[in-house]
Amino acid sequence: MNKIIFTFSCLLMMIFSLLSLSVGAVSISIPDLWYSLLQKDTSFSFIVWEYRLPRVVISILSGFGLAVSGVILQSLVRNPLASPDVIGLTKGAGFFAALVIFLFPSSPSYVLPAAALTGAFLVFILLLLLSKRLTLSPDAFALVGIAIGAVFQSGIQYLLVKYPADINMTLLWLSGSLWGRGWSEVFSLLPWILILLPVAWWQYPKLNVFQLGDEYSQTLGLDIIRQRFWLLLLSVSLAGVSVASVGSIGFIGLIAPHIARKLVGGRHQLLIPLAAIIGANLMLIGDSIGRIIIVPREVPVGIMTAIIGAPYFVYLLRREHKRKG
């Protein structure tokens, strides 16, 4: 059964990738698309190779990173509502990106993702300091993250009010968009994902143990504080590099782990790779739909994932309330 689920998920990723390559302000038929991919001298080759193919690759890579980051967070915090955007990582990244856009508009292109990554790691440091070196309960850790995210969100709103003339670029980045992304962004993100994803999968025995609770984890010989620190750092790194490349895209790290958990259960050796594929599929379909709703304009993928994820988040809140009530 698991093989069927993985095969079907990979098949969907291929279909959604072809759809993303085909749709947009200029529609490309499947025969023309195949020919453009094989021969670079067709009328559609430039569009496919320079605009749409890098978007597809970035969608997949960032979907991988955000989804796996969400898997790690939910397992460590033991809270189904935990995700990179919920505990403030994307808010911190967004605030520092907004600072660069507003205060240093002429800075080189690499400064913006570097600032976003810095913001994500600053949130991580604040989480460590305010949660007393990770010794608080998982619920308290999640609440601290929500509070930090609210503070950075307030900072973003202040910058938007103070610098209204430069608001367009900031809103585009904060909403999460693949517009204008090219091969330079692909090659910036690819090495991180190729390194961090295998590292995340190799940690599946520890993540399986963490799900049993702190007392059982200690009984089994796991150094809780140290391992939680490194796993959280891994989660922050995955989310940080993804947000730095595509902007503040929310709900991927929340939805993808839940869907994967319902399909294959809580064993992380299966949960991590399936959640990564589902995260990529959500990014691909969100980007594709966003490009065909109001042609020739496009709706940022972050808005599309929010439309999908917000109702699911409400559903999870109600389910958790009923379970605890």
Automatic annotation (TrEMBL):
Q: Which domain of life is it from?
A: Bacteria
Its cellular-component GO annotations read: plasma membrane
Q: Which InterPro entries match?
A: ABC_BtuC-like, ABC_transptr_permease_BtuC
Report membrane topology. Answer: Multi-pass membrane protein
Transmembrane region(s)? 6-35, 56-74, 86-104, 111-129, 141-161, 182-204, 229-258, 270-293, 299-317
The alphabetized list of GO BP terms reads:
siderophore-iron import into cell
Q: Which residues, by range, are in coiled-coil regions? A: none
- What GO molecular-function term can you cite, just one? transmembrane transporter activity
Keywords, alphabetical: Cell membrane, Membrane, Transmembrane, Transmembrane helix, Transport
Give the protein family: Belongs to the binding-protein-dependent transport system permease family. FecCD subfamily.
The protein here is known as Iron-dicitrate transporter subunit FecD
Which species is listed as the source? Domibacillus mangrovi
Q: Which gene is annotated as encoding this protein in its UniProt record?
A: fecD
